[in-house]
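Chain A, query sequence.
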Amino acid sequence: MAKTRKVAGRKPVRRSKPARATAPAARERQPRATPHAPVRGKLERVRMPARPAKAAVDDANEGKYVYCIIQSEQPLSFGPLGLGAEPAHVHTILFRDIAAVVSNTPMVVQDPTRDNVLAHQRVNEMVMVNHTVIPMSFGTVFKTEHDIMELLRSAYDAFRDVLSKMQNKVEFGLKVLWDRDQIIREIEEEEEDIRRLKGEISSQKGSTYFARMQYGRLIDAALQARSEHYVSEIFQALRDVSVASRSNKPIGDRMIMNAAFLVARDAEAAFDLRVKAIGQRYDKLTFKYTGPWPPYNFVNIRLKLERAQ
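Chain A, predicted structure.
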């Protein structure tokens, strides 16, 4: 029986450019009060205490981290879930009937550390429980709330179109791996030409360079053909329980399939059962099955607004 595991996955991330910090505000010197100042009969200007320099710098260096876009006409709060050593408070910024899900963040390049990536995913997963989500790439930071409003305004039609198309849909990931050496042994047993060529290489006492080159080409072609056959059958088996699919580049020699599937929420159970059935059918393959996720692989909106400069 094939190994089928449902594990948490990661998605590609994008870094924003760091902002240039503004100079600290100077602290004003306050006049020393006299104990018996005379009362004057004219209106005088009252000098207010200056803000601490550090607070001014913090405000200048604080931006808005955007996790996703949702449809909402009311302001929403999701609590302390965001990036940061102390998780930042996550809330929405509204424009008409759509909203950006954001939290305050320093205007620095957010490194894709494990904690940061998990925080980004955690917010998206929490929001998607009750909302259709357009996930933003990791590291999407804007300077001000006004900049985010401009993003929502300028890309409003695109966001509304994608929200409509992604309504009540989620993404599942499916990676398929094999034992390459085991498959090569099977190919050698099944393919007469390859088996004969391997025997010739083993029995020759002189140079076997050209024979080994030919053997390698035949093995690579057989592996490619077998891999494509498996992948084609798996995609075909999942076609009627998914809305769309996307094939990504496999990673490493063992992986033969790295795919994402867009699935309607009311078809999740059927998709899950189908994946398990495929895993039982292909007992020589290992399946890594993850989700549900926001539709990372099925959203492609190019942002025209310059971010975090």
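Residues 171-297 form a domain with the Alpha-Beta Plaits fold (CATH 3.30.70). Residues 7-57, 304-309 have pLDDT under 50 and may be disordered.
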